[in-house]
Amino acid sequence: MVTPKSLAKQRKAGKVMSVVSIAKLTEAEEMLFSAYDERAEKSSQSDAAIAVLKANGLPTRRVESWHYTDLRSVLKNVPAEVGEAVSGKVDTLVGNASLLALDALSNHEKADFRFDDAIGQLNGAFATSGSSLNVGAGEKLESPKEIQNAVEGKAAHTTHTVSFADKSSGTVIERQLGEGGFATSVTNLKIGNEAEVSYIIVQGKGVEATHLGQINVTLGADANFTLFVLNTGGKLVRQEIRINVAGEGSDFQLRGVNLIGDGQHIDVTMDLCHNVPNTTSEEIIRNVVTGKGKGVFQGRIAVAQIAQKTDAKMACNTLLLSDEGDFSTKPELEIFADDVACGHGATFTDLEPSYLFYLMSRGIPEKEARALLIKGFVDEIVEDLDHEALEEAIVSIIDSWLDQNG
Amino acid sequence: MPAVQETIDQVKEIDVDQYKYGFVTDIESEKAPKGLNEDIVRFISAKKNEPEWLFEWRLDAYKRWLTMEEPEWARVDYPKIDFNDIYYYAAPKSIDGPKTLDDVDPELLSTYEKLGIPLAEQEILAGVQERRVAVDAVFDSVSVVTTFKEELSKSGVIFMPFSEAVHEHPELVKKYLGSVVPTTDNYYATLNSAVFSDGSFVYVPKGVHCPMELSTYFRINEQNTGQFERTLIVCEEGAYVSYLEGCTAPQRDENQLHAAVVELVTMDDAEIKYSTVQNWYPGDKDGKGGIYNFVTKRGDCRGKNSKISWTQVETGSAITWKYPSCILRGDGSQGEFYSIAVSNGRQQVDSGTKMIHLGKNTTSRIISKGISAGNSQNTYRGQVSAHRKAENARNFTQCDSLLIGDQCGAHTVPYIEGKNSSAQFEHEATTSKISEDQLFYCMQRGIDEEEATALIVNGFVREVIQELPMEFAVEAQKLISISLEGSVG
């Protein structure tokens, strides 16, 4: 087994050559690069991915999109052993959902790899398995499909491919599970014209886990897409959301809840590109930070010059409940079309004392009153899901987090 | 409906071809050799007859600058600057520190007259006391009028060129120079520290409410030169000063560099109000020529309940890279930033502010209005942060952008960071064209479309215009002409 120490020893002895030009490799970089070098199955895509990563190293805060998550310095303890993610260890989130299998990746799926970002590069270099779902034209999924991605202790990398053809509809749940380990998970989602799709990402990993997720979505004409992201677990988490609004008349809705407890670092970064005229989007992110939690939300709305009549709104509201925690947000607008209505709002605040007082004056103890207010703050946007069973399941995850951290 | 014709015309009026201040004053000047090296730093220091410590300070900055890299994060695009192709010092020969108006070269006086700032008249009309002539000779800033200086000194206010202050008040300069923007701060601030030639020094002693507004008018005249001025304003306990700054430059085909540093310090209960109307030559329609305005401005609210307020109207410069900031260190201190940035032609603006909340009960307010037209790019970039001990920090931010035409861009990049649970931040940003609802509302009441548009645009920037001192508000309104006072009546 290769450990950083043994590597350093070998390097000293001249047995291993340093392959990169960056000044000095971090422990994590050494582990990742040597893990790749030792990998049995490689492909031209994975070679290409690791080459970019080796050339650039892990991103630091000098890379603008990683400004608040200096991956190079915060990514530590990458497990040396690369394993496979598993599915089916827990019940599905809602009763009638059916589980998608985790299979070896086809060459076709590998061709979707994108190496323009560190998560894509890591995933492209290591991913071996993933779920796939193709919903045919006009097909309506009666019950949700669920992807389970559980990683325990080891490193595991998955790429999921989902497509909804024209006029199809359905709900997909992606669950990121496991107590520890290091995972990258990339989802490529194509939504056809007039399709109606809900995609729910529920990340509830253990407090030792490192999770780097990415979802790439292409939205067809007159399509309606709702993305819901819930983060409650993980030690170091980054979820990237990249939306290409490519069809006229389409609508994108994002709802995000980040519950960030002591010692956690959770980063949600969205890059939304309105590339055609007459599209709408709305994003609401609610964050709760307790203990020494650190949270990040970056949201960029880009409107291309031809994307006239774009209506895009974004709100990021944060409850910062601890003086030891911190939250940083960067809501960004990049507008090249003139006939648009784009806006964003961001707020930071503690619980409103008068609300607390109101509840406490009615005999509700402070702890409960606080929990009630926090619950109200996040549950509000869960309701936008408009799917009763799912809402209940998500609210119960939120409740159990509040019991432990509230 | 992307903006009615009149609005477009109004914006065009401030367009580069209309640039009124583009003339060149023909005056003999003395220059340092082109380029930058230790000898140039020594030359400038020697010209100013500076004490050894200041020369060392410059040299230290120069050595550090050599190791630094040009910042590339801003949304601006320009060919690489050849720092060895610039004159770092140029002074009109005729000026050797005149003491009264009579001593000033008439050529210089007429320049100011042409700029609409007839120095003598100005004294009477507006009660503006002193004009330092950063004139013709780009670097050199020379105090022309001294009468008000005397009057100011009666109340204890020190207002003089930086080079004079170094000799007359070395202890103050030494104490505060670089204490807000250290020589290590950033590429252009470090460059400025090495080669700054002059600027204003203001010191308002304890309890003094500065009896008049102080004002500086910067002018770049010489070819191939850069202007590197340095302004330092210190307000002692309970003092107040309002300071105005204006700038213009001749119309030239080449780009010129303006890299200034402004440092403000306020002690307990003190207040500084700093207003800028920036109208450097913006280049022509195709983006040829114009000033690169790379400026570091920062205020340090050191004392309790102190206040620093920045107001800026930015209409000029080919490229603007400027973030007037407030460090809210003292408990209960306040920071304000009011900005109008109008970009047209091929102008690129990347401007905004930083509000760093360090003390308890600190408050800040940011109102930024960007108007982009033509082929310009207009970016608001700002940071608001509350540190661990910044209990009850409050911020309100509003960034609105208005787009006129479909070839321009408006961007907003705010960084909001909270580390204290009692901090309360509100940020909102919008980008739009003129609202059809509002237009309809006005037109329904019998106002025609053109006039209604004027009215709305006028209202769009008014919040900021109101923050300007009277004298400047008028100039700014004219400048922005997008506020369209005339057509609304």
Which tags fit this structure?
heterodimer, A: 406 residues, 9 helices, 23% helix, disordered N terminus, B: 489 residues, alpha/beta, 10-stranded mixed β-sheet, 6-stranded parallel beta barrel, 24 strands, disordered C terminus
What does this structure look like?
The complex is a heterodimer of chains A (406) and B (489). Chain A has helices at 4-12, 27-37, 44-56, 71-74, 107-110, 118-126, 353-360, 366-382, 388-405; strands at residues 98-100, 103-104, 129-130, 132-135, 145-150, 155-164, 169-177, 182-191, 196-203, 210-219, 224-231, 236-245, 251-260, 265-274, 280-289, 294-303, 311-320, 326-335, 341-349. Chain A is 23% helix and 37% strand. In chain A, α3 runs antiparallel to α6 (118-126), α7 packs across α8 (366-382) and α8 packs antiparallel against α9 (388-405). The longest helix of chain A has 18 residues, at 388-405. Chain A is α/β, with parallel strands linked by helices. In chain A, the strands form three sheets. A nine-stranded parallel sheet of chain A has the order 1-5-7-9-11-13-15-17-19, with helices on one face. An eight-stranded parallel sheet of chain A has the order 4-6-8-10-12-14-16-18, covered by helices on one side. In chain A, strands 2-3 form a two-stranded antiparallel sheet. Chain A has one domain (19-352). Chain A is globular, with a radius of gyration of 21 Å. Chain A is built from nine helices and 19 strands. Chain B is of the alpha/beta class and 489 residues long. Chain B has one domain (5-488). Chain B is built from 13 helices and 24 strands. Chain B has helices at residues 5-13, 38-47, 52-67, 106-114, 119-126, 147-154, 162-168, 170-176, 187-195, 436-444, 449-465, 470-480, 485-488; strands at 29-31, 90-92, 132-134, 142-143, 158-161, 200-204, 214-219, 230-235, 240-248, 255-258, 261-266, 271-278, 290-301, 307-314, 319-322, 325-328, 334-343, 348-351, 354-357, 363-372, 377-386, 394-403, 409-418, 424-432. Chain B has a ten-stranded mixed sheet, with helices on one face. In chain B, a hairpin with a 7-residue loop joins β3 (132-134) and β4. The relative contact order of chain B is 0.12. The chains are: A alpha/beta (406), B alpha/beta (489). Chain A binds chain B through residues 64, 67, 305, 308, 318, 320-350, and chain B through 1-3, 73, 386, 388, 401, 403-433.
